[in-house]
Amino acid sequence: MRFSLKRKFWFLVLVASLLVTSSSAQQTTPPPSATPSQQSQPTQSNTSAAPQSQPSDQSQNQNGDIKRQEETGTSNDRLFFTLPNFLTVETRNVPPLTVGQKFKVVARGSFDPIEIPWYAFLAGVSQAENSEPGYGQGAEGYGKRYGAAFADGTIENFFTGAILPSVLHQDPRFYQLGKGSFWHRTGYAIGRIFVTRTDSGNRQFNFSEICGAGAAAAISTYSYHPSDDRTFSNTASVWGTQIAYDTLTLVVKEFWPDIRRKLKKK
């Protein structure tokens, strides 16, 4: 198993556990109830408050985001306000993506400026751990690790988000459920690895994810990674870990809009 993929996997495990734990705690904590005196005595602030029909800034921003998604079919969202999350939508009232749009949005996320320091970090830790010794050390070894990490992520993104979805007419977007219990929403997010939508809105096995991740693992393993890593067992390990990483990513995507709204409100 390649180091950069392991690092991404365990980093996301930590983040996912923090996000879903926070979301679960917020869902199970009942709101404070008013005392009898508070219920029977109106306060000055209540009588002078703005009419309830007046939308808040947060509500206006949320409605604006949903409207953009309904118009363009994609979002401008970022996980943790940094990582591209353009294929996650919070409404099902979106138009189907054309082949050109699928490639455009994947390219937009894959070559986003934030990816430069992200892959630089992965390559640096990989260098410190001397992962895949065939790359060597020094500037040359670091450059190879950086290029490999960037290529691994980009190839997988294009196969699962653009190439196979275009060939198979599948929808690469993740539709946030946004309602229900914690476990129901978690199960829904995990299930999207295996079940996806077609361009026409029907349900179908997610060939784009499962086959796309396998193709990306095989291409990267047997092309630019060191010869010692070019084995079937390593390819299968990378394939399985990538699917596990993508599964955790979907769980984070399911709960992230809720956390984002609460953070903005605060």
What topology emerges from the helices and strands here?
Layout: H1 3-28, H2 36-40, H3 44-47, H4 57-72, E1 78-79, E2 83-84, E3 88-89, H5 99-110, H6 115-129, H7 138-168, E4 170-171, E5 174-175, H8 182-191, E6 195-198, E7 203-205, H9 207-221, H10 232-265
Parallel strand pairs: 3-5
Antiparallel strand pairs: 1-2, 4-6, 6-7
Helix pairs in contact: 1-6, 1-10, 5-7, 6-7, 7-9, 8-10, 9-10
Report on the structure:
The protein is mainly alpha-helical. It has one domain. Helix content is 63%, strand content 6%. It contains ten helices and seven strands. The chain has helices at 3-28, 36-40, 44-47, 57-72, 99-110, 115-129, 138-168, 182-191, 207-221, 232-265, and strands spanning 78-79, 83-84, 88-89, 170-171, 174-175, 195-198, 203-205. It has a three-stranded antiparallel β-sheet. Strands 1-2 form a two-stranded antiparallel sheet. Helix 1 packs parallel to helix 10 and helix 5 (99-110) runs antiparallel to helix 7.
Spatial extent as radius of gyration: 22 Å
Oligomer: single chain
Helix content: 55-70%
Shape call = globular
Strand content: 5-15%
Number of strands: 7
Largest sheet: 3 strands, antiparallel
Mean pLDDT reading: 83
The strand line-up of the biggest sheet is 4-6-7
Q: What is the domain tally? A: 1
Search tags:
mainly alpha, 266 residues, three-stranded antiparallel beta sheet, single chain, two-stranded antiparallel ribbon
